[in-house]
Structure formats: C-alpha cells, structure tokens
Amino acid sequence: MEVTRRNYKDSLNTVYSAIEEADFLAIDGEFSGISDGPNVSALTNGLDTPEERYTKLKKHSMDFLLFQFGLCTFKYDQTKSKYIIKPFNFYVFPKPFNRTSPDIKFICQSSSIDFLASQGFDFNKVFCNGIPYLNQEEEAQLREQTEERRNQHANGVGTPSYISPSSKGPAHVPEEHKDFINRVIEKVEALFTNSEKTLDLEPCTGFQRKLIYQTLNWKFPKGLHVETIETEKKERYIQVSKVDDEERKRREQQKLEREQEELNDAVGFSRVIHAISKSGKLVVGHNMLLDVMHTIHQFYCPLPEDLQDFKEVTMCVFPRLLDTKLMASTQPFKEMITNTSLAELEKQLKEGPFKSPQVETAEGFHSYDTAQEQLHEAGYDAYITGLCFVSMANYLGSFLTPPKAYISARSKLVEPFFNKLFLMRIIDIPYLNITGPDLQPKRDHVLYVTFPKEWKTSDLYQLFSAFGNIQVSWIDDTSAFVSLSQTDQVQIAMNTSRYAESYRIQTYAEYIQGKQQDKEKLGQTAKTWGDDGWVKSHYTSSTTSGSFGYPRGLRKRSISPVQGEQGTGEAPITDGWSHYSYPDSTGSKKMKTDDISGQANAEAVESKTSEGWLKTADSSDSAGLSPIPDEEEEEEESSEGTNPANDAEGTVTWQQATRKGQKNKKKKSKDSGSKTSLFEVPEVW
Amino acid sequence: MEVTRRNYKDSLNTVYSAIEEADFLAIDGEFSGISDGPNVSALTNGLDTPEERYTKLKKHSMDFLLFQFGLCTFKYDQTKSKYIIKPFNFYVFPKPFNRTSPDIKFICQSSSIDFLASQGFDFNKVFCNGIPYLNQEEEAQLREQTEERRNQHANGVGTPSYISPSSKGPAHVPEEHKDFINRVIEKVEALFTNSEKTLDLEPCTGFQRKLIYQTLNWKFPKGLHVETIETEKKERYIQVSKVDDEERKRREQQKLEREQEELNDAVGFSRVIHAISKSGKLVVGHNMLLDVMHTIHQFYCPLPEDLQDFKEVTMCVFPRLLDTKLMASTQPFKEMITNTSLAELEKQLKEGPFKSPQVETAEGFHSYDTAQEQLHEAGYDAYITGLCFVSMANYLGSFLTPPKAYISARSKLVEPFFNKLFLMRIIDIPYLNITGPDLQPKRDHVLYVTFPKEWKTSDLYQLFSAFGNIQVSWIDDTSAFVSLSQTDQVQIAMNTSRYAESYRIQTYAEYIQGKQQDKEKLGQTAKTWGDDGWVKSHYTSSTTSGSFGYPRGLRKRSISPVQGEQGTGEAPITDGWSHYSYPDSTGSKKMKTDDISGQANAEAVESKTSEGWLKTADSSDSAGLSPIPDEEEEEEESSEGTNPANDAEGTVTWQQATRKGQKNKKKKSKDSGSKTSLFEVPEVW
Predict the structure, then answer these.
(1) What are the backbone angles phi and psi of residue B311, rounded to the nearest 5°?
(2) Does residue A610 have a pLDDT over 60?
(3) C-alpha distances in Å from residue B518, one per residue of B308, B448, B508, B523
(4) C-alpha A389: how far from its chain's center?
(5) I need a surface site. Which of B97, B155, B473, B593 has the fewest CB within 10 A?
(6) d(Cα A22, Cα A383) in Å, to the nearest integer?
(7) What does the pLDDT look like over A155-166, one tens digit per residue?
(8) Highest mean pLDDT among A61-75, A147-161, A547-561
(9) What pTM, to 2 d.p., does this model score?
(10) By the 8 A CB rule, do A126 and A68 touch?
C-alpha cells in the first residue's frame, strides 16, 4: 500500500492493526544520500573500531533525508500454513506545517539520487505528497506551546490565543501607519454602536495586520474576535466580529481543537514509528544500521555523541532487531551463501537446501512478484528482507529432531541473531552488538604506517615484501593500517623502521593509545563498562511498562512522554510474546539471555580473530580501498542500491577463503572455541 | 521549449541560434533552497555593507542547487513591430558521468521544495532527466586527463588507455586469486595459438577484472585488446581480442572519439551558459543577484572570497546585466510601481501609463499566456521579466521629443540601469554596482547596540523613547543597529549610555572600525580602489577579443580557455552592437560612460541618504526584522517565490513615503542633487 500525505490519515488504522497482529515486521529505508565525507574508503576503514564507525556514520550520513520508509508486516496463518503479508510504502517529507515550524535542510548526493532515478523512483511523490513528521523534541515543544496558550486563556489573562504574551503595551505604530490604524479604530468603534455583527477590513500588508492585532487587543481586550481571512486571490484581510463571552469561548475552543488536530498531523509519520516501537515486535532489516540510525535521528532525537548512548536509545526504540545480512554472514549460512547483497540473497534462498516461504498478500494490498519486481522501492525491499528472514529461520528448523518446516519469529533458534547489526567492511568485527559490549579482536599483528602522500598500495607491498602476505587498509592519503600475517613479525618491522625517514611505523596499540590521549586532551573521557561488562540499560522498564520514549537518564532536554493516540496503557508486546514460553516470561529477562549467549560467542570469535575473519577479507578490502583510480577496472555496481560501499564481493571472497579450513561444519560444531561457527549451536540442534 | 537530458543535444543548435539572433536575453533560476543560515533576518540586515551581504549570500546560499534555468530570447522584428520570443526551460542536474566524476552534494530546504511543489514543479524531470554540467575547472581537468592519455599513447608508451600509468609492474595477485588468474593466462595463451579472434572470460568480480587487466597488460603488452562487456543481466565479463597493430590503433582512436563526445556531454548545460556569456548580449533578470551568483558558482567557478573579485568574474561572464527589480525601484518608475515583486510588476506594467509589449512566440515554442500561467517555472519567469523590461524601456521613450514607442535594448536610455543588481532589504544601498565602487552612505546617525538576549524591539523603542522616531535593524539575539532620525542625537545617546550596565552603545564608525580590526587580525586586508576610483577590470579585453573565460589575473588555478564548439573566433557581440552608434564605439568606453554616470548618481544618493532612502524603509524593516513571533500576524506570503525574504512590502512603503516630498517629479528632474531622482536624467529627456 502506497501511503502519502493524501491518504495518510485514512490509512493509519490499517497500519496500526497490521503492526498489532504481526508476528514480525520488516523495514527498509531509502535516503537522499549515503555519505558526505570525502570518500567511502575514508568512511569505512577495515579496522575501524565500532565507536569510530558510529562516529563517522553519524557525522557523514545523518544530514541526508530518509524519504521513503518501507514496512512489511508478516503474520503467520496456522491454518493456511503460510504468512499473510501487508506491505506499506511510506513517502516521507518534512513539509513545514506553519511559518514557525522548523525549516529542515537536508543534503542530496547526486550519485544516490541518480541511482534512485534509474530505478524509477518517484521524487514528486516524496516532495509533493510526502508525509510530514516531527521528532520527539519538536513534538514536545509544539505541545507545550499549545498547552501554554491554553493555560493562559484558562487563567483569564484575557489575551486571545493569537496575541503573543510579549505584546502587552500599546503597539508602537510608525508615523506613516498612524492614519491607517486610526481609521481602523474608528471603524471598530462604529461596529460596537451599529447592528452589524462583523466588519471586514480592507486587505493590507502583514505588517499592517500585525499593528491591527496589537492595537485592537490593547484597545478592546473583550468583546471582539479578530481573524485573518484569505481570499481566493490569496489576499489577506482582517475580519473583526462582535462576540459575547460565550461565543468567544466557543470560537477559542474550536481553535484549540483545530490546533490539536493540526498538531497530530504535524507529528505525522512519526506516529507509525512510535507504533512499531510500542509493539515491541521483532523488526527485521537488511544491513540495517543506517536504517536504524536514520529512523531514530529523524523521528526520535538527534543521535547521541556516544556509541553507548546510541545503543541505549536504540533498545528503547527497537527492543528487538534482526539484520538478515548479519544472519546470512553467520554460521550455518555463511558457507552456503556466496553473496549477501539483498537481491542475491533472495535468489539463493529460493534454491535448495532453502525453501521459498509460502506467503500470501493480504486483501487490498499490492501483490509483489519477486520474479519481476525491481528492488529499491522501500516497501518491496522490506518484503524481500522478510522473506529472507523466513527462509533462513525455517532452514534452522531442519536441524531439529524431528525437523520442523516452520520456525516462528519467536523461536529460540533465531535469538542468537537478535540485536546484532552488520558492520560493513570491518575485517574482524562482523557486527555492532546493541545489547552488550562489542567484540574487541586482538590487533597485535596490525601496524599503523604514515608516509608521504605520493605512496600507493604497491609502495606498501614493497616496503613489507619480506613479510609475506600483508593486508593494507587505507586511512587517508598519508596513513594506512598494514596487517601482517604473523604477529611475531611486528617487532622485526618496528626494528627495521627505526631509522626510516620517509615513513613511520607504530603498533596498533600505540596508535590507539595516541588517539585516546588526543581524545582526553579534548576533554572527552572514554566510557567505562559496568562491573559485569553489561550496559546498564533502561529498556527493561520501558518495555515492560509498555510506554515508549526515552529512559529518564537520556532525557537531556525535557521531552514529555508521548501518549499513543490509541489510548492503550498496555503495550501490544505482552500479547505478541505471551503464547511462547521462555525460561523467564518477562521480556527483560529474555533480553538478558540473549546477551549472555552473545558474550559467549564474542569470546569464541575473539579467540579466532587473526586466523579466521582477518585473512579472509583481504581481497575485498584491497579492491575496495585501493587508491589507484582506473576507470575501467570498476567494482561491481553495488547491488545494495544507493550504497556505494559495496560489500558483496568482500563477502564472496571471505566465504571462499573460510571454506578452505572448515569443510565439515556440522561435525565440528560442538567444539567450544571452534573456528568454524560464529555462534554456539544451541543444545536443541 | 522544455530541455532535458533527453533532447538536450538535439536542441543545442536551436538554443545557440536563438541567443545569436536575440536583441536581449532574459534569465531566471529556480533553486533547491535560499538560505541555510539561522534565519533570514540574520542573513539580510538592513544595514549590511555590500561586502557583508555578498559574504553572507556566498556562505549561506551557494550549497543549494540551481536546478531549473529559464532563458527567454527577445528579438525585435521591425516589420511586425513586435518582439519574437523563444522561451527555454532547462532542467539541470549534476548526474555523475562516470565513477571518477565529482559526486556533487547539494542542500534542499524544505520550505523551498514545498513551495515549488505547490506550484506544480516537476522534480522527476530534474532528478531523472536533468542535464549534467561541469564548471571550468572540472572541464579543464577532464580535458587534461584525456589529453594526457592521448599523449602517452602517441609517445608509444604502449599502455592501452585503460591501464592507469601507475601500474607498471606485475600485478600483486592475492593468494586466493592465483589459481583463477593462472587459468585466465592459460586461456589467453591458447587464444594466441588457435584460430579464434576473441575469447570471452566468465563473469567475475570487479577486483578479479582489475587483476586480469593488470596481469594481461604486463604479460601481453602487445597484440591484445581487452574490454569489459556488460550482459543484459548487468553481469560484467571480460572479452579478450587478438588484434594486429592497425586494428588496435583503430580501436584506440574510436575510443578517444567516444571519450571526446562523452566529455562534451559531461560539460552539458554549461555550454549554454558559455554561449550566453560569449554573446555579450544584455542579460535581464528580476532581483537577479542570487541567479548571477549561482550561475557563476555552478557553471564557472567557486565564488571568490572577495566582493571585488566577484564583480570582476561577473563582468567576464555577463558583461551586461540589467535587473528589472532595481529598474522598477528607480526613477522614473519607483513612484508609479507600488509592488516590485515580479508578478505584481508584470500586472502593473499592463496598465497605463505603461503598455503591454507586442510579442509573438516563435514557431515551435510553447506560447505562454500571461493571464493564465503560473509563475515559478523558470522559463515563464524569464519571459515575464523580459516583458517587464520592454514595458519599462518603452515607457522611457515617452520622454523623448518626439516620443518613441519602441526603445531597443541598446538604447542609451536604458544604460543607467546596466550592471546594478538589486540588494534586498538594505535600507540605504539600493544596488550592488558591478562595474564600480558601491555607494557608501553616511551612517553617522546609526548606533550599534548590544544588550541581553531577553530584549525585544519594544525594549529598544523604550530605551530610545526620548529620541523620537527610531528604526531597529536586528543583527542577532544580542545586538542591533538603531538608526536615529537626527545625527546630532548620536552624541547625546552616547553620553547617556556611558554608565549603562545592561547594554552598550557604539557609533556605526566605531563598529566598522572594530570589524575592520578583527578582519586584519585574521590576516585579511581590505582591497583598495584604484586612484581614479574604478576597478581595474579586465572585461575590456575579454569582450573585445570575443573569447570568454577568466582574465589572466583571476586564473588562480590552471583553467584552460574553453573553445566554443561552434568554432567562431569572432564573438557575436560585434554584430549585436554594431549598428548602434555610441560616442565611442568600443564596448569598454561605453561601460566607462555608464560608470561615470553611476558615480554622479552615487553622490546624489549619498547626499540625500539620511533623509531619503533611510526613513522610507522604516516600516518594511521593522516588519521584517521584528523578533516577536506571532503566528497570525504574518507577513504576506512572498510573491518572490522561493524567497522568504519578502521585499514587496518594503517597496510599497518606501514608495509611499517618498511620494510625500516629491509630488512633482518632472518639474524637479533637472535640479542637480535632486532628492527625487536616483539617476541623473539624461539630456535627451
């Protein structure tokens, strides 16, 4: 279903009930650009820390506009043994709702716009009919303003709502307008003595109207209703009406109701995001970190400085996330799936050993044909993403005894994949762990090298030619990380470089220490983890109480908790999860369970880092980050759509490389610290 | 005529000949936004100096995109006694032409986008079919790259054009690709021994293709042509062909020609601007400063830091400009025209004493109906602007003895309006003088006041209540200019404020001195004028020689002079101006004549400043700059379209106010230093 400003209000209940009844939700966003940084390789160094990556994305990607939001709800129908889906395609645009509303500026990147254009994207729908939105602070401000006005009125200050509180004295009327204003006063005085109910003044300038409002408010604080009316020719004039107290109150009341309605309209699309958030349902996306960041940034609040704060906010807004790109890149899928771009993934999951899920489009919704449809309509991409999730989840059921063909979104089998968002092009950290600390792979085989800006990758290969296979990750024109294949070579490299003049080598540890010192000089101190290694997250109370919004600790500015317009104090989450039994029945405990399994996995990965993840990404990285410009030797056109940081090839090679050492996954899968499985295989398998 | 990427090449000759045959050109641009500054009042203080205004516009407006360019050519047909017009509406978009081309980012302002959307603007045409463009430096770089490649080839370096010069050694082939590359080498070796002419390799990744190119180039420097081919399914594979030397050269030549063609395509819309510039024709716009700035910025070069340099560049690109808003705001029109917004101006110029010009749309062009058409299509706005110019020019003919009904764009009567661009909302400097120094009105009745940020306009009125009528121009939250009605009150104000604690007063001279000192601290020294008070402009040589491009002095980077593709060394300008006799027949002398009259006028204005211009803008300014927010007391919706800095009202009041003291314009018009006329009335009147 296509939703624009035109049918938004009428569609809202359809959207709400689709979310409420769903087993899980799939989402996707389309943006006006990806990166306003100098280039993608600087934005995505293969040895970024999660903090660095978050900071870069926040700095270089958040000024773009999320202007199409795809939502596809999946509800499993037991009797039909198939999913009933409801796809929505929302067009979103920050149309200013009045003259005092924020006038949003956003960046467009011509390559992204051009890509979407080539896919038949309809920009007119966005810019002419996009649904407006407000973030929580803007909404709160607007509500406060309305409230304040209402209170003033109720307290009998006697100023009609259209007079700003600051204008209490007589208006200052410039000399050349005095005649004009005096004539208006005469007319209004005449109105009081004659039998007319209203007086239409002649059209005049905005400044003159302002003077009229101020003057009449001061001269006739009671008994008048003053309103600006626009003619068909867009001329504006003032209508003055004699009103008794009751009539005036009625008009004021009408005005307030109209304002309330306008306020809801202004909050606009954010209400859909609020409903998704409130539902607590599993939200599935493909390579979804930017989608999540943009959604929070645009519809909730500017992103926090700190990665840890971002994780907390994310858990409040989306208590359960699953990234199909990460899932496809993880055991048991990573060996079977050669290309994790959405389009390729979808194709591969149609073939054995996977099965295309049985789905049926709900009545009244556009039915997508996966054999025909173009990608990069957000609603379609969300749909495909959901299909991929279902295929992979069901495949996990084949390991059960007896095997199960249908695995629900609430199954314990998919839990290991919760709240881990794929990190593009980081060699040894596959995901951002939203509910816990991130992996900290050893990087003691990595050197930080600075050199003259004329140097190319080949110069680095030559410099380290004695050390066998190396891997270069460019940072900028004059620095790069060089990963050696063996850690014990690091000291040799350091020693031989001691007297070098043109270049300089530091260990990774020294580099990090230097950065840390720079940071401390800037007065920023690094966050520390709690004793137990877990974030003191506030999501527990927010999920269980059923309200959404930020935990108190995050409310740096006063954001009033927004009441959902459906008026339910109870969150649908209880309903969504209640008929599945967990070791502990509360949502918060379940999350904790996830976290613990995540930690075990983290250790497993950490121990294998330098041999496993690291080597494997070699070719993708040198292809992507090579500074040699060459027109014809292009990377594949990114099938990730607007995203120039193509990761498809990286994954291919990585898969190929890892295959070597781990042919017999199943046999090894119970070894603890196994090199082949990222996640511990649950006992049920 | 609507021109997009689809019909651009076919339309180019039509555009060129329309420009060549025209008497004058009218232009208009539509932008993705106006100001990314905090707010318009901060951007347009009523007492800005021209330098300040230029700096603000450059800083806060140039990141928007000029995405629709309107051009309407006007050619007078003597036999029909009417203008034949050719309107063009160009859609412009910086589509990246290949992977190494600049990926332009631009800002969109939601209010501007929303305004254009409400006018039925077609964003899809811009983003899907906009004509690309390059500025001069980008074009030069691209030409150099092509040239360099060609030379390398000619010098027998022997590297095919698709191999970058940096890759001379054997390619570094990562371990996991060695098998793959070795198999490719075997196949190619087999190709040399068998009878096949070409070999299609299997589709592979971009990185693998890069390795293949590098390897084959190194192993088989001669006898092979290697090319990437894309299948219908967008898969890319490499085709290797055996070629003899001749065949290889032929293919290389084809490739170079294709590149040349692609380069011209990439320069795209800039060629239209080059043609306008080369023609030397009078270019008419309405409130055209931003149009001129954007056009230069987007299609020539980033705007210079310094206003003086900007003026020089402008004269190179547009040697003759005329701003209809400035014309309408100047004697003899300012008293007759109550609203100088384009739409209103057009309406007023249809009524007596003005006459609607007789125009005919050339065959094959869209015929606009001024009674029907919506504004804010750039082509239509350009058309209307041209009409306004013709009406006003013809009106000037009524002062001749005998009166003339038709006044050409080359008439001396319109010269006083040349190269003076309207300055929005500056109280005492009506225009930016492109060909000379700007007016320097005395501001010795102006105070610079700083105060706590709680202060409102009313506080300032109260503070200065003893001084009669004052005028407040807000600078920011905590400072404003206050203009007193009498200069001798300045000292009194200064004395009484000496012991004030909450606020601080400086004279305007002190304020300017302080700013100057700050600037000098930053190492920027103010430009000085030449002894004779005139800019040493370089436009003389560039106009008379008929080439365009920047004067040598401005070429800070190496920009090669672009040769027009029409191949004429002679500029059309000679033709366009030759059958009109001037006191001096060269363009440069004529300009000088303008300048002198401009200087005389400047003095006239200067002497009357505090009584004339200043007072008159009072109401507009306090309306526009008042910091009191009030939803209902709005200014008029700007009829200047996307421009939130509505100036219409200001002009109205100014006109009203000046009318007081100058009822009998014609009688007084011969007094020197007259208070009623901005420009000296030429002797011919």
Answers:
(1) -60, -40
(2) no
(3) 20, 16, 15, 9
(4) 19
(5) B155
(6) 13
(7) 544 444 444 444
(8) A61-75
(9) 0.72
(10) yes
User: Does residue B258 carry a pLDDT above 80?
Assistant: yes
Q: How many CB atoms lie within 10 A of CB A628?
A: 14
Confidence (pLDDT) at B638: 38
Inter-chain touch B631–A99, beta carbons under 8 Å: yes
- Cα dist from B593 to A527, B417, B583, B588, B605, whole Å: 70, 12, 9, 9, 18
Query: A102 falls in which pLDDT band (50, 70, 90)?
Result: confident
Is the previous residue joined to B353 through a cis bond, with omega within 30 degrees of 0? yes
Name the band, by pLDDT with cuts 50, 70 and 90, for residue A137.
very high
Is it true that the peptide bond before B132 is cis, omega within 30 degrees of 0? no
- A108–B105: do the CB atoms touch at under 8 Å? yes
Give the pLDDT of residue B534: 29
HSE on the CB side for A403, CA within 13 Å?
7
Report whether pLDDT(A651) > 80. no
Three-state DSSP state, A125: helix
Give kind and range of the element (H or E) at residue B457: helix B457-463
Alpha-carbon distance B525 to B534, whole Å? 19
pLDDT of the residue at A259: 80
- Mark A508-542 as b/e (b = at least 16 C-beta within 10 Å): beebeeeeeeeeeeeeeeeeeeeeeeebebbbbeb
List chain A residues with CB under 8 Å of B633. Answer: 162, 206, 209-210, 213-214
| Residue A228 in tokens | 């600006």
Cα separation, B450 vs A16, whole angstroms: 53
Helix axes B307-317, B289-299, angle to 10 degrees: 80
Percentages helix, strand, coil for chain B (3-state, rounded to 5) are 45, 15, 45
Find the CB nearest A632 among B93, B96, B162.
B162
Per DSSP, what are the bridge partners of residue B133? B268
Best residue in B111, B162, B464, B642 for a mutation probing chain A (most A CBs within 10 Å): B111
Whose tokens are 């363009």? That residue is: B587
With residues binned 3-state (H G I as helix, E B as strand, rest as coil), the percentages for chain A, rounded to 5, are: 45, 15, 45
Can you tell me the distance from the alpha carbon of A456 to that of A462, in angstroms, rounded to the nearest whole number?
10
Question: What are the phi and psi torsion angles at A31 (to 5°)?
Answer: -120, 160
Helical axes A289-299 vs A270-279, angle rounded to 10°: 120
Per-residue pLDDT reduced to its tens digit, A352-407: 899 999 999 999 898 887 777 666 789 999 999 999 999 999 999 999 989 999 99
How far apart are the CA of B154 and the nearest CA of chain A, in angstroms?
20
Quick check: helix, strand or coil at residue B310?
A: helix
Collapsed DSSP state (helix, strand, coil) of residue B552: helix
Under the banding of pLDDT at 50, 70 and 90, the label for residue B21 is very high
- The residue-averaged pLDDT of B625-646 equals 34
What does each C-alpha distance from A177 to A230, B40, B472, B619 come to in angstroms? 22, 25, 17, 8
Residue A455 structure tokens: 């140097």
Task: Give residues 141 to 200 of B whose Cβ lies within 8 Å of A.
Answer: 162-164, 166-167, 169, 172, 174-177
Comparing alpha-carbon positions, the chain A residue that sits nearest to B456 is A166
Residue B449 parent element (H or E): strand B446-450
Alpha carbon of A201 to those of A94, A182, A198, A634: distances in Å? Answer: 35, 13, 10, 68
Alpha carbon of B308 to those of B48, B277, B534: distances in Å? 16, 20, 11
Mutate which: B4, B59, B101, B113, vs A, most A CBs within 10 A: B113
Q: What is the three-class DSSP state of A606? A: helix
First to last CA, chain A: 39
